[in-house]
Design a protein that fits this description.
Blueprint: E1 4-9, H1 13-24, E2 29-32, E3 44-47, E4 50-53, E5 60-62, H2 65-72, E6 85-88, E7 91-94, H3 99-106, H4 111-131, H5 140-148, H6 150-165, E8 195-197, H7 204-210, E9 215-217, H8 226-230, E10 233-238, H9 242-245, E11 255-265, E12 275-278, E13 287-290, E14 302-311, E15 320-321, H10 325-339, E16 344-346, H11 358-374
Parallel strand pairs: 1-2, 1-10, 2-9, 6-12, 10-16
Antiparallel strand pairs: 3-4, 5-8, 6-7, 11-14, 11-15, 12-13, 13-14
Helix pairs in contact: 1-7, 1-11, 4-5, 5-6
Length: about 375
């Protein structure tokens, strides 16, 4: 006889929210994860008294008050505002693209001057394309230049994007960049959302509280003893890769991966900001994260992480789904199998082959678990 109501495969944010709500409603849950820790990619670990984001910067932001109140019910969030800096060679620019950025690029001071400069460069790009007999952007390079002009593209978009995707911009499809938001204010807040912050004490403590009342087994790979795990619960909540669940029967879905180099430095302040993006192609990492600034740390030492984009192969950690036409068509085949399952609930970034921000994961998990418990 099954011992649990739900076996939850994956102790990340989706699985933890599902487990919390299920336990709260009297269900018995077993949560397993192949990693030796809970939290998935939002896992934070303490080094030199600093909460280090092990798998890259995670800044919580949302305009959904229900989601904001929900995460704050587990731990208090601070007032951190994401204001990254872009470094191109020896030049520094504020992100997102705003009046501070435009002043540094062109010396303009008013929104009208900035608009004129951008529109002038967009017109030049369109005229060049027209002269070459091109009526619509054929690739990411042409798309970005027609959206924001040559200067913004060459200094702040091109190299970073090519590193991120592992291809030259002229080889990437235009649809990857649908818009390049520019703001004609002197405001360095990267997100437009109403609520934003970092949990005091890191993300791991949120997951710990969400998993209270559930049984948790770590370093436990579902696929190493699949039949045993499947027989332990009435239903399975699966948050891993959908193609892996079905034994890659239609082929592998593609991802981009990341590699991290973390270093403790004997200084109290390395770069003066939590996130600095390196936008030139020749520097192999896309950004350096200085973790203490997420929580306004005053420790004597600091911890930095260099983030390198990487080509994904089976066995690597998948981060970004490659949602191009080919992969979306392949995912649709797997989705058809998943929709026919009666005992398995699929959810989260990997199972749904969709890039989610954290607030979207929480909202989606709440929607799925409430629908499940209602029935």
């Amino acid at each position: 006889m099954p011992k649990y109501d739900y076996l939850i495969v994956g102790a990340g944010l989706f699985g933890a929210v599902f487990a919390h709500e299920a336990v709260k409603n009297g269900r018995k849950c077993l949560v397993i994860d192949r990693r030796p820790h809970i939290g998935g990619n939002v896992y934070t670990e303490e080094i030199e008294g600093i909460n280090v984001h092990r798998y890259g910067a995670h800044i919580f932001h949302t305009s959904n008050k229900e989601v904001w109140d929900y995460v704050n019910s587990f731990v208090e969030f601070n007032r951190y505002t994401n204001s990254p800096v872009a470094r191109y060679k020896d030049e520094l620019y504020n992100l997102p693209f705003n009046m501070n950025t435009f002043h540094a690029l062109w010396g303009v001071r008013t929104p009208e001057e900035a608009r004129e400069k951008i529109e002038e460069q967009k017109r030049e790009a369109l005229e060049e394309m027209k002269a070459a007999g091109v009526t619509e952007p054929r690739n990411l390079r042409e798309q970005a230049i027609t959206l924001a002009g040559r200067d913004i593209y060459e200094k702040l978009v091109e190299g970073y994007t090519e590193k991120q995707w592992g291809k030259r911009a002229s080889e990437l499809p235009a649809f990857i960049i649908k818009r390049l938001p520019v703001r004609f204010t002197y405001d360095n807040n990267y997100f437009n959302d109403k609520y934003q912050g970092i949990p005091e004490g890191g993300y791991t403590c949120i997951i710990e509280k969400m998993l209270e009342g559930s049984e948790v087994k770590l370093s436990a790979d579902f696929f190493n003893d699949r039949e045993t795990w499947e027989n332990m619960a009435d239903k399975i909540v699966f948050t891993g890769m959908l193609d892996e669940y079905y034994g890659y029967r239609f082929g592998e879905l593609e991802y981009r991966s990341l590699r991290f180099e973390t270093e403790v430095l004997d200084t109290d302040n390395y770069q003066g900001n939590a996130v600095v993006n390196y936008t030139e192609y020749e520097i192999p990492y896309t950004r350096i994260i200085e973790h203490k600034h997420f929580e306004f740390g005053t420790q004597e030492k600091t911890v930095i992480t260099r983030e390198y984009p990487a080509k994904w192969k089976k066995g690597d950690e998948p981060y970004y789904p490659m949602n191009d036409e080919k992969n979306n068509a392949l995912f649709a085949k797997y989705r058809e199998l998943a929709d026919a399952e009666e005992k398995v609930i699929f959810g989260g970034r990997l199972a749904e082959y969709k890039y989610y921000d954290m607030h979207q994961v929480v909202a989606r998990a709440l929607e799925v678990v409430r629908n499940e418990l209602k029935h």
